[in-house]
Design a protein that fits this description.
By secondary structure, the chain is mainly β. It has a single domain, classed as Immunoglobulin-like. The protein is 13% helix and 43% strand. It has 2 helices and 9 strands. The radius of gyration is 18 Å and the shape is globular. 16% of the residues are buried.
Length: 125
């Protein structure tokens, strides 16, 4: 009977508490530097871009698996010591990432922002 009580108590956890346990990190796409992405073994990490990537180059396909979902890239470390680079091309711009498998600090969701987004764009005829 105590097991049923514990299960009931867990079901009543406020949604805001659950939302706080997920990690979201916002990074900038900077062609001059690589952004570190920490992937926990046996878990997935999603990198979300403002637009659908044109091309993606994964340094070693034996280190990480990658799945394309609209504007997102879902990554999984294939070993506990996986370590490689990733380049993502967005409308002529290149974003560089250094992927590391780690059981400590890890990213669940990484949202990529373009530093050019903060500038006003004007299309001239």
């Amino acid at each position: 009977m105590p097991i049923a009580f514990v299960g009931l108590a867990m079901m009543q956890i406020p949604l805001s508490v659950i939302a706080q346990s997920s990690s979201l990190r916002v990074v900038r796409c900077d062609e001059a530097k690589m952004v570190e992405i920490y992937v926990r073994p046996n878990f997935g990490t999603v990198i979300s871009f403002p637009i659908k990537p044109d091309n993606v180059v994964l340094g070693s396909q034996k280190q990480f698996s990658i799945e394309y979902i609209k504007n997102d890239l879902a990554l999984s470390a294939l070993t506990t010591i996986s370590n490689t680079n990733l380049f993502v091309y967005l409308q002529g711009r290149r974003c560089g990432f250094h992927l590391r498998a780690t059981s400590g600090r890890h990213d669940n969701l990484v949202q990529v922002r373009d530093p050019e987004d903060s500038k006003l764009r004007v299309n001239l005829p």
